[in-house]
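User: Could you check the structure of this?
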Amino acid sequence: MPRDPTDAPIPPDYAGWWRIVDTETWPNEDLDMSGTALISFTGDDDALRMHCLLARVTAMATKTGVSFIWSGASEYD
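Assistant: Sure, the predicted structure tokens are below.
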């Protein structure tokens, strides 16, 4: 049976909390509306916060860094 890719540890160069300062998809103004815009790749209750979005993150190591999916509340709905 193939190994679950979410079991691979996050590479040390990417592990930790990251400040979000720019996005391609959403406007950059008001990124800090709900507090400092951040994403975490710690392996324990990873989170994403920017604009009015609060989400849980599932991060996976890839050959070139980190990939992630998220689920949560956008504008609290």
